[in-house]
Amino acid sequence: MFSLMKIFDKKAEVSKDEIAAFLKTEPEALEMFEKAYNAYSIAAGSPDNLFKINSRQVSEMTAGIELNAPEGLEDIKRRIVNELIAKTVIYDYKDKKSQVIDLRKEIPDEELVTREEIMKIPEPYRPAFTGSLMKIDIPGSGRQLLSILKECMEQKNPLKQKKLYQIFRQGLDILDLDAIVYEIIDKNVNSMGYWLPHMVEIIDEEGFFKIPNTRIIKVPLTLLQLTRQDYMSLTRSTLDIVDEYCRKVFDLKDDKEYFIKTGTYSSKYDFRNAKVAGAKEIRELGEYLLFIHWQALQMAHYDLTGRNQPVIYGVSTTTEWVVREYIKDTEHNPCIYHGMPLHTEYRVFVDFDTDTILGIHPYWDKGVMKKHFERVDDADARHDYITYSLAEDQLYNRYFKNKDTVMEHIKALLPKVDMQGQWSIDIMQNGNDFYFIDMAVAENSAFFREAVPLESRKPMKENWIPDLSDKKERNYFFDKSKNTISDLSIR
Asked: Which of 29, 235, 242, 464 could join 286 in a cystine, given CB atoms 3.0 to 4.6 angstroms apart?
């Protein structure tokens, strides 16, 4: 019998495939395998790679009671929370009913937290923002980005145009926010606040797919600007304000379980970022959202770590935060990525212009998964390779058994959906239930090339030109359906 603790070493004498084969024949050893992995992870401590650290680990670093906090700080924190609420728009889907809740209202100037009040607070306790004040390094980001976008659209040289487009997209993720940048980012149709309102009524009417209860907020500008600051420098009072604000606008309950994400990104590949349960975690949910949004935007920076980290923009180009009902696993599936059950999932590619299905692909593609775990090859990847190998046959058997049924019901939806272009739709199976869980522009989605024939592919028309009209009157959750101002398709 080999040592379970040693199998997570790169120099383990027993191969991952041999371990998976053994665990298939010795089910009782699986529990021992998981215990050994947990013990190994605890012994390893927190990673030194920013992109491998999770929100819970960061929360422990920033935990603490503000001893000797200055008089009046609690009242200022309360007022800032109220200011943020008064700048919030919510989309709420619950029990097959949806509504837009507009909490925006004017607060008299004399009631706003002033810069003078903030500066009187000693720096270690000082909030980094209010509902109307925020820190920036360089002003004028909006005009700069619009200038780059204009030059990009007028550029005739394809290589220069592509370079300008990449600079523009990177800037959306790393430059300071202003009202213009906020509105440009809000044009991203990959964000859940765009596609979910278009789908819920049609899906519920058709009746086959389920949708978890979901609340989406448009994050107020000054709060979203925190994602452009150094998260590790934020004071405890700043994080307390974010936590309390989220507790109120998401109507959080201590006895519930939630799945959290930004409008475009869940950070589910460390599932400790995505699932929130227990009173302590629910009280800290706001800082978790802030951290995963900030962490995702760091991918767009040039690599300064020496790890050859590529520049990746667009992961969390969104103005939205999302809290969803957590779908409890009814199948006792094995877990990868620190707690994510391996449900069978289906990625369906559709064309809303022609009401056709373009293709379908298993989300947990065995070639992609195993190559990824082999390439990374640390303790987590070794665990997940072995666990995935145990689940592989069941995942594929369910996929092939049900994929035609999934496509049949997706096809029934298409003529009724008021959207344009080619999209991917993700369906998750949980027992006999099939959940509609995600969407994205098809060409931005994994397996687009594998599932969609070359002759069927069409680039999406992008529109990043912001609407700078009176925001009080417009519906933030539907305006992005107008994709006709520009025809900018650069890949």
From this structure: 242
